Queue: 2 jobs
Job 1
Amino acid sequence: MSIERLKAQVAREFGTPAVVIDLDLMERNIARVQAICDAAGVANRPHVKTHKSPVLARMQRDAGARGITCQKLGEAEVMVDGGLDDILISYNLLGAQKMGRLGALLRRAGITVAADNPTVVEGLTEAARTAERPLPVVVECDTGRKRAGVETAQEAVDLARLIARLPGLEFAGFMLYPTDSSWPETQRFLDRARAGVREAGLDARIVSTGGTPNLANLGRLEGTTEHRAGTCIFNDRMMLACGAASLDDCALTVYATVVSRAASERGILDSGSKTLTSDPGGGLDGYGLILEHPQARIKGFAEEHGFLDLTACNERPKVGDVVRIVPNHVCVVVNMVDQLIAVRGGEVADVIPVAARGRLT
Amino acid sequence: MSIERLKAQVAREFGTPAVVIDLDLMERNIARVQAICDAAGVANRPHVKTHKSPVLARMQRDAGARGITCQKLGEAEVMVDGGLDDILISYNLLGAQKMGRLGALLRRAGITVAADNPTVVEGLTEAARTAERPLPVVVECDTGRKRAGVETAQEAVDLARLIARLPGLEFAGFMLYPTDSSWPETQRFLDRARAGVREAGLDARIVSTGGTPNLANLGRLEGTTEHRAGTCIFNDRMMLACGAASLDDCALTVYATVVSRAASERGILDSGSKTLTSDPGGGLDGYGLILEHPQARIKGFAEEHGFLDLTACNERPKVGDVVRIVPNHVCVVVNMVDQLIAVRGGEVADVIPVAARGRLT
């Protein structure tokens, strides 16, 4: 079936905008990432924040992933309900409500959590007490991004010792997100932190790195045991921009219709900030790549309008045309919708619920 | 109950992040907007894209609104299911799938649609044919914003004549969104367009203006019959910035917890781009106003992290603190969640489903 027939089928059956994934490309992405991890001798723990679907997480597991990574307790609950096990929640969880839920989840599945401060660590004891099972905790380390994570190896060691000392908690290792420029510093940080915990009689059995761009660096950090990458299942315009993917690797596109062409040099898509999101993609020009009109610029949004600057386009779309857009950032686009329309061999094959969407906590 | 007790209640019962509305403030906003419209002799047709809830739309109707405005067919379907009638869909609807749904909806309720081009207008005949009822159509006019809408009064008249000529369609009037700087031009545009349709034997029974900031201008455009304002039910940081609301009028806040304080001058909230959205609010500094720490700057996001710059804060939040955030743009924040937590008199009173969220089409 030609792409024009596919676009017509999606528009006819679902209307636009529609978020569409190509299962053939996606499966190739899953296999490639697994092969990269296997070749590096690093376990694959894909981050499911990108797709929020137990169906797709099971495909990643069946392809060889050791477990999965979640960013929210609610995501982990949906994944356990969907048959997944061995889950790292890479987030500082806090508060009685979450500790009760975490304890309940820990009774049902293998859960590890991350923490970067004593307040969070002390709170986690309540979850372990509820579960009557030890809770493994990794120490999140900031190695250059100035986001979450302790800033020094000494703080990492101190937090590891606190974890080991507190009832119900088990020190499990370190979680890092190295940046392009920080590899030698990250190695030094990790070496010091590992030496420090060893001196305290502890063992960092997990050293977890993250990020789709870092798939190109797997093995570079000595001691890495597993890797968390999310975006690589679909890829997006950010991954194109940093060289982590080519256009052939982009498995997710937003199908949109041109609804207005009030003047020659401009037009409007039926996909605005409530579909493509205002995510700037780390400073990209515009809000998406239109495959049929790569010179068109999605220059801004209303909530349901995408404003097109067509100045640079030789061939310009007309009202009613359906186009496919590679979004700046797939993770936030998937989070806007309740379902992904799955195509295979150029035909609609399935509808996959974004089951964990809306689990705000 | 003090605000600290309320924050503790929300965190305990729902966890954070949570999107919370104050029903007392919201009802005051609804009443004030209705009073402004009544005083100007202009019908109130609130835009429900802001809240996507039939419960809240019925409150607006019961306060005196003539009908409602929707931006999506899916929103209109949910509103009709929820007992609303007299709906303007202020959007170019296109394609067989939507024409079938629009026709079905037109059999059940009073629906008017907007259009700005002949392709859309010609397509609408199919909906009227399906419904076996005439479909009123307003012509969307661009009066300065360069978004949707015909650019000249002559085009507006031509489109009105096409609507009147086509089977099943009824020319109903004009839809505009005047900008601060365009009032005299907008009046000239409207006067010419009305004169033009009158010459053609047509009557513009609807002249619809839009926008919360334009509530301050109601009556300024001679001939206005009704007004579409959305944001004013909750207000947000954009409305604060343009003077359309004061802090006392902000009925929606996002409750978030400080989950990390890795260094003295920075911190992390559990609300990132998947909660507050990357909407820049038309060029505001940062991504929200933290009521407890107005000098704190939400300087950027990961998906579930809000990065705080605390440099300018004398008193800095600690890990575990719950704060309330007025977001840049409420309409896109409501669109991220399945429910609004409704408080009254400082206690949780209700949970209101965002029933039309996820209706992508």
Job 2
Amino acid sequence: MKFQFDISARDGCARSGRISTPRGEICTPAFMPVGTAATVKAMLPESVRATGADILLGNTYHLMLRPTAERIAALGGLHKFMNWDRPILTDSGGFQVMSLASLRKLTEEGVQFSSHIDGSKHVLTPERSMEIQKLLGSDIVMCFDECPALPADRTTIAASMELSMRWAQRSRDAFGDRPGHALFGIQQGGLEPDLRAASAEKLRAVGFDGYAIGGLAVGEGQAAMFGVLDYAPGQLPEDKPRYLMGVGKPDDIVGAVARGVDMFDCVLPSRSGRTGQGWTARGAVNLRNARHRDDPRPLEEGCDCPACRSYSRAYLHHVIKSDEIIGSMLLTWHNLAYYQSLMAGLRAAIAGGRLGAHIAAFHATRALGDIEPL
Amino acid sequence: MKFQFDISARDGCARSGRISTPRGEICTPAFMPVGTAATVKAMLPESVRATGADILLGNTYHLMLRPTAERIAALGGLHKFMNWDRPILTDSGGFQVMSLASLRKLTEEGVQFSSHIDGSKHVLTPERSMEIQKLLGSDIVMCFDECPALPADRTTIAASMELSMRWAQRSRDAFGDRPGHALFGIQQGGLEPDLRAASAEKLRAVGFDGYAIGGLAVGEGQAAMFGVLDYAPGQLPEDKPRYLMGVGKPDDIVGAVARGVDMFDCVLPSRSGRTGQGWTARGAVNLRNARHRDDPRPLEEGCDCPACRSYSRAYLHHVIKSDEIIGSMLLTWHNLAYYQSLMAGLRAAIAGGRLGAHIAAFHATRALGDIEPL
């Protein structure tokens, strides 16, 4: 079976459709929960699936260090290792080498670095990243790229983009022909329209199964990000999935979908679930706040996740304040379920040709703020 | 519906049967997972039930401090609060005041102490303990007792036992008549047969729905504990459940069941699940050990818990070494499932009149040690 992307509906720049892979379909626009170290933290994979997730993201950087890609391959691949038989997208390791590793040395060849876990020395190149992602058994493989820290001057961003484009070609060459597996290119170019255009042109010349918009959500702010998204998706092929890496908050996702993005990943719903923050249609709720301690109401009325179906805000407040693991389990579950319902709502609105009204209602509901205190 | 205990089979001193309560039946011999702060750590209650648990234990000391018994009562009681609709046994708070609180002052009236959480001052008396356990909605209420730290001289143990027996009468008086709810007395007397006999006599004179054997599993060692269990159960009423508090390791439980004990609780399976220790028929397995890191085999062959059904030892090793929450979730689930299967095996052996052979096989299997390294 081939990797394939079919757009079934459009509304303005937004599209809804599905990605078909041998491991299952991915309804788009899609949100991918992050399973950094072969687990979506505080969740069993069957629970992640129950929230509606079609695909997970795994992190090459973390997995290559521990337990190592070779070990996972010997154990039958990442899907079997972590008990998730649906599609997995792996990043290239490039971004996290820059954000987590120490003693980095960047050359034309690749990046040398020391592990943040034990200081051991490693090298990542486009070829090694492709090899690792193949060992993991990733369904959607990302090109190895370099993402400069912002703010950076135009010369730096241009040079970095050019390097990433040479690495994109090397990634494509190293990936080879793997039916049923996809390779995505990553557009760079910072906040510069002409650099973004040049990057897109080079990627199109190489040819990929999908295209990520990289180098955003790194501190530039939503207005600047939306500024890039006003033109960047249109620079990429119309008939391939577009993936905005590392995004984001619900309103980031809504704005990006309206601008033509099909795929997202972010640690936010799972990470904030471990710190007592619940995401609802009416915004973020800090369950550590004492106003919840006597509140018999669910976190979100009408949500059918286990946290909302079976527990009060008072209980969630209690277990979070008590540092009980069930607090992380329940809030992560709710947050992932909220994100998936957000995506399902966007897909239905696009299919129904009513995305504008849907987004207006999304913002109006958020403007209400959390339910009134008791 | 009344609280009722029916013995359906005997084998030597051992008994199997069931406790009936308005919230459900408890097959005995029973193991009660500990849900200290209104959660069995790292488990959803439906998962605890799936392991085969008929009843949970809640800790009065923890719950009275946070979120408070009054708050839980206002929210509909502990069952509703923590989403567990089957029976709950609560301890009296006495033991944990002694082991966790600071600035304790013991008088005939009760115990003053400071919270280990925030230093706030509290008082526990037999009457207040009964009130708290009623507010929680406990199905099986424990008398408020004093448990002296061992080693202690005979005079100290005798005085402590006498005090606990006066408190047992006050607990009985304060408990009143609550159909469908049970009150258990607690035998004390350390390792002294005559003090144990005196304690049992006083408890029988008051009259309880069940009888705990207290003051054991506090560092005296298995041989000394079994020494007491050789006579203590026989000092208690034959037709009421006998509960050995805070016990224990699998071989402790097996030895106590053979000596006529019907109920157990212990944090061991859940606590050790959070530190990478798995309990199996072949003994304890430390999954942090590097020998597991390439091992594709399940923790325990033939176990149908999620950890054994869907994951390798290599995966469990990886997530435990990586401090991932799923490691605690999976190992706690396995350990609670193992404990429940241990109890089910004992019940079946008693019912079949083959407990001796069953225990011999239990020890023979443990003597094999863990499976051979790869």
